[in-house]
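FW: tagging you since you asked about this chain on Friday. Here's the raw sequence from the shared folder, copied in full. Didn't touch anything.
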Amino acid sequence: MKLLTLNCHSWKEEHQLDKIVHLAKTISGNSYDVIALQEVSQAIAEEYVDGKVKMNNYGYVLLQELKKLGNEEYSFVWDVTHYVNNGTYEEGIALLTKHPVLKQHSFYVSQSEDYAGNWKTRRTVGATILYEDKPYTFYSCHMGWWHDEEEPFKVQVDKLLKEMNWDEQFFLMGDFNNDAALKGEGYEYLLSHGLYDTYHLAKEKDEGTTVKGKIKGWNDNEHDLRIDLILSNKPLQTESSNVIFNNKNKMVVSDHFGVEVKVHL
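HL: got it, structure written out here
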């Protein structure tokens, strides 16, 4: 099974449409089974096309580009997390998959549920899919920061993990906003709860860096960061873990690089 996670930084990128086309071509070419996307935004003023989804929803636009390539395999699950850009955009979180969706999941992990008034409001979106006649659940996550006094990461993780069915195979994919190199903080807190990082399970992997330099939320960053992760509740056989969209493995499409993983279920 091929997995991809990417914080899209949507509608904040120069040459945004060109980058969506590049992402669509990569998805179609690599034939990922499940794709977790964060910062999947849409303009509040746009018209609705399907449920909560509006015409310029980044995920919806991406699906249209895939269809232009003749690829109609994918469907997506999306929900809003909070307003951004002075209340002109709804930022959300999404999962794309080419397999049948048995059940959709959406729940708050932040203490705040004020998506219109508090940009730190966080939601996780998930999908239980049917893969080779068995159900597997995937969640797209965009978490807060370890030292945030208003919305501490630890509280969000505790809420997140209470929603999990530990008797079944699940994956947590996304931007966890905690550097894997830091001891005693969010990354170690995640692993202390019985989660496995596919990066460490992988037989083949690269340096793992998903953020270089200063970006929003990491304004003082001076180091390479590994904050975008694909975690499993079971120690699966993992063939590879590679950073993508970093100008070494495909063109940059966001202020984050993506992570692609091949696992055997």
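FW: The longest helix spans residues 16-30.
HL: agreed, and The radius of gyration is 17 Å.
FW: great, closing this out.
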